[in-house]
Amino acid sequence: LLAVGDELLEGRYADSNSAELARLLGELGVEVARIAVEGDDERTLAARIVELCAAHELVIATGGLGPTLDDITREAAARAAGVELVDDECARADLGAWFERRGVPMPQINLRQIRIPRGSTLVRNPVGTAPGFALPIGHALFVSLPGPPHEMRHVWDESVRALVAARLAAPLGRARLYLFGLSESRFAEIAGARMQRGADPEIGVTASDGRLSVLVTARVRGIGDAAAELDARARAAADALAAELAPHVYSRDEGRLELLVARELAARGAKVAVAESCTGGLLAGALTSVPGISASFERGWIVYANAAKTSELGVPAELIAKHGAVSAEVAEALASGAAARAGAQLALSTTGIAGPSEGSAEKPVGTVWFGVHWRGTTRTQLLRFPPGDRERVRRCATNAALHLALTALRGSS
Amino acid sequence: LLAVGDELLEGRYADSNSAELARLLGELGVEVARIAVEGDDERTLAARIVELCAAHELVIATGGLGPTLDDITREAAARAAGVELVDDECARADLGAWFERRGVPMPQINLRQIRIPRGSTLVRNPVGTAPGFALPIGHALFVSLPGPPHEMRHVWDESVRALVAARLAAPLGRARLYLFGLSESRFAEIAGARMQRGADPEIGVTASDGRLSVLVTARVRGIGDAAAELDARARAAADALAAELAPHVYSRDEGRLELLVARELAARGAKVAVAESCTGGLLAGALTSVPGISASFERGWIVYANAAKTSELGVPAELIAKHGAVSAEVAEALASGAAARAGAQLALSTTGIAGPSEGSAEKPVGTVWFGVHWRGTTRTQLLRFPPGDRERVRRCATNAALHLALTALRGSS
Fold first, then answer.
1. Contact at 8 Å (CB) between B73 and B132?
2. Of A18, A58, A212, A208, nearest to B11 (Cα)?
3. In this complex, do B36 and A39 lie within 8 Å of one another by their Cβ atoms?
4. Distances (CA, A) of A321 to A310, A327, A351
5. Which pLDDT belongs to residue B110?
6. What is the DSSP string of A257-288?
């Protein structure tokens, strides 16, 4: 993979396109051997294209297809292949139509974008002005795609996936698991040799604020392995792992806790309310990221100050004075109060110490109490997150609250 | 820059370390010529290190320093330099102390991490188990840093910045501007040739959910350019640009709107409350990301349902029936209601259509009304964001609310 642009070398953006392409190629069973990022210099880029095409079967470049003079991927590819640039009439028609739809005249400079190396296949781009192209260079296929991530993804879905699959795809089987409350290193200990490169099936894991996303991949061992058999092998390995880690597995097909909670709520016709202290709005923000959540979520409170806990949700001031705001008692009173005031069957509360300061020996930074009210019963839970990063403590606490909600909803059937 | 790890080639993570390092190196005036991402294969990695060290003055690698067998940066660097790995006693002492502080015995496998190539300088890592090292290879300096982003950043700040500055830094002048409410392409039109590579001073811009972060860089033209003169040149160019774009400039030194709002609140001893509909908690979440905000922020409401707007904040049901929930009238009533109920001088409200559906011809997806109450007066503002991405509409609306708050606070002196 080759990402092109001075803005990447200057650190103004991270190269997210290559990671996205690597993931998409992985779904086709195509392994990425290396990723290179190059600046907007035509000769240097041409040399890199030659080098990459000599060593690999497929080279996919993103970026450098805009209309301005510092967009040089077209020229560099032509130089690498030893061909000239030619106007593509299909690209001309697409570009004309693009500006016509917007009711603005096409600037002359955009005509640079209809030039592609002779011998290329055009990769049409209906969502931008930059078409891509696919060009054989030596034994490799060089594919140039637009840099804006949504354009890259659009042309991948529309045409490039099929082009790559036809040339390179190896059949493989896939199965997934989503876990909560297990560290990545503990997972690695349990999965052991199954995570080694080349293991069959091979297990990969990604951690994100308390969640683990596990991917099990089965590859072809010999000629004649059917696709169904590969899937069955991946699923069997995932089943075995799920059995070992049962209490942590919360889904086989969807990692977003807020989406799973929203689905369970919708299935039960139940409503949810939130009373947030340390998460400060992030829990409501996660729930309201789900389109259509307004059927299940009507209101929430951010009760940062003790007086707000009392006046908005009826937490007795004496309770706070006696146990402190970060306590099981206050977490319970917040959740019950929110459920009662909102008329919701489910209510979630958080109260904790996100940091960086204000921790104590008894309640260090990272201490969070959760309250989960579900149909008349309120349970509480204490969790301690690693201190040191206020936002990470808040994000982990948000996910933990969602996971507790999911457990409560599912336990009720 | 060289990022090491199969997880990067598989697209499980994007290479954020290289972008961060490119930005940090840019601050020292050091230009990044290329970025390479390699997998966990010792021989391939060693060959790449040799190639990069032959072509560049400095090569900084991140990742591959963990304790497990697939962490092979130490071995690859030793192979590239033609030296052996030796135990480092300082690393041994640091590692022992690290486990002792946690009260757990050190697993034998972690001893791999105290081995560094002979001739290296140890880069101590107080926040993790993986020390880095700096090793001359040919004419280049090869620096290996731990992969976890917070560890990488910590050792950069502690020691690597100074190491690199002593070897390579070119003096340059810097000035910044932060703008709101201007598109990146409109900015590029105005800045024109000043954004071209090699312009002096050169202007760069990064967009993020409605904010633009502008960096003006002046470089040495000839021997004897003093650092103060470079700064003055950058500042003069930033001043000229700020004059052209005056209504959009909100800061010269800090881009985080929530932090600027928090500072203005603290300076005035004022309190803020929020009443969120379409932003659904993200506005409170942004404010509460600022440590110490509890002195200024006590409570907020997420009033998604119309009934919640009425019962929590006193918005008359007839007002909603007459004008619709997404209206100036309701935005105003939400902000005034939140200010009154919270006893806050400043109150912010949002009500809009984040999408993906539920828009109309009159109020398309992306329509958001804002209310800003400040010391007895409530103003409203309508903004329309590009539809199509629910989360982007919500993030842009959050920043817009913060920008309106900042304008109100500053206008009051």
1. no
2. A18
3. no
4. 11, 11, 15
5. 87
6. HHHHHHHHHHHHT--EEEEESTTTTHHHHHHT
A295 contact B CB<8A: no
Q: Give the CA-trace dihedral at B36, B39, B41, B42, to 10 degrees.
A: 40
Which residues of chain B have a CB within 8 Å of the CB of A36?
34-37
CB A152 within 8 A of CB A67: no
Question: What is the mean predicted confidence (pLDDT) over A57-76?
Answer: 92
The model's pLDDT over B283-312, given as tens digits with 9 standing for 90+, comes to 999 999 999 999 999 999 999 999 999 999
Pairs of CB atoms within 8 A across A/B: 221
Q: Residue B141: its pLDDT value, please?
A: 95
Percent of all residues in chain A with a pLDDT value above 90, rounded to a whole number? 72
Write out residues 323-352 of A within 8 Å (CB-CB) of B: 342
Interface probe with B: pick from A1, A2, A12, most Cβ of B within 10 Å: A12
Q: How far apart are CA B118 and CA A265, in angstroms?
A: 60
CB A280 to CB B289 under 8 A? yes
Per CB-CB distance under 8 Å, the chain A contacts of B391 are 289
Over range A275-282, report the average pLDDT.
98
HSE-CB of A116 using CA atoms within 13 angstroms: 23
Indicate the SS3 state at residue A135.
strand
Q: Closest by alpha carbon to B204, among B177, B236, B239?
A: B177
Over the stretch B95-153, which tens digit does the pLDDT of each residue have?
Answer: 999 888 877 888 888 898 999 999 999 999 988 889 999 999 988 999 999 999 989 99
Which H or E element spans position B102?
Answer: helix B89-102
Q: How far apart are the first and last CA of chain A?
A: 47
- pTM (global) more than 0.80: yes
To which H or E segment does residue A58 belong?
strand A58-62
Identify the closest residue of chain B to A299 by CA–CA distance: B303
The one-character DSSP state at B346 is E
Residue A198 has pLDDT above 80, yes or no: no
Residue B318: which residues within 8 A CB-CB, separation 6 or more? Answer: none
Inter-chain touch A197–B287, beta carbons under 8 Å: no
pLDDT tens column, B161-190:
999 988 887 778 889 999 999 888 788 888
Q: Which tokens hold the place of A190?
A: 């349990």
Letter for the amino acid at B329? E
Q: Which amino acid would we find at residue B110?
A: N
Distance from CA of B79 to the nearest CA of A (A): 20
Give A344-362 as a DSSP string.
Answer: -SEEEEEEE--SSS---SS
Distance (Å, whole) CA A6 – CA A13: 10
- How far apart (Å, rounded) are the C-alpha atoms in residues A273 and A284? 8
| Measured distance CA(B77)–CA(B133) in Å, rounded | 10
Taking residue A169's Cβ as centre, other Cβ atoms within 10 Å add up to: 15
Best of B35, B202, B209 to substitute, by most chain A Cβ atoms within 10 angstroms, is B35
Rounded Cα–Cα distance for residues B147 and B208 (Å): 26
Distance from CA of B318 to the nearest CA of A (A): 19
Q: What's CA B133's distance to the chain center, in Å?
A: 27
CB–CB contact B34 A206 (8 Å): no
- The residues pairing with A208 across neighbouring beta strands, listed in sequence order, are A211
Q: Is the pLDDT of residue B237 over 60?
A: yes
Put residue B206 in one of left, alpha, beta given phi > 0 → left and psi -120 to 50 → alpha.
beta
The β-bridge relationship of strands A140-145 and A58-62 is parallel
B262 touches B290 (CB < 8 A): yes
Distance (Å) of CA A147 to CA A32, A62, A90, B30, B209:
19, 5, 21, 25, 19
Residues 348-377 of A with CB under 8 A from B: 355-357
In whole angstroms, give the CA distance from residue A384 to residue B1.
36
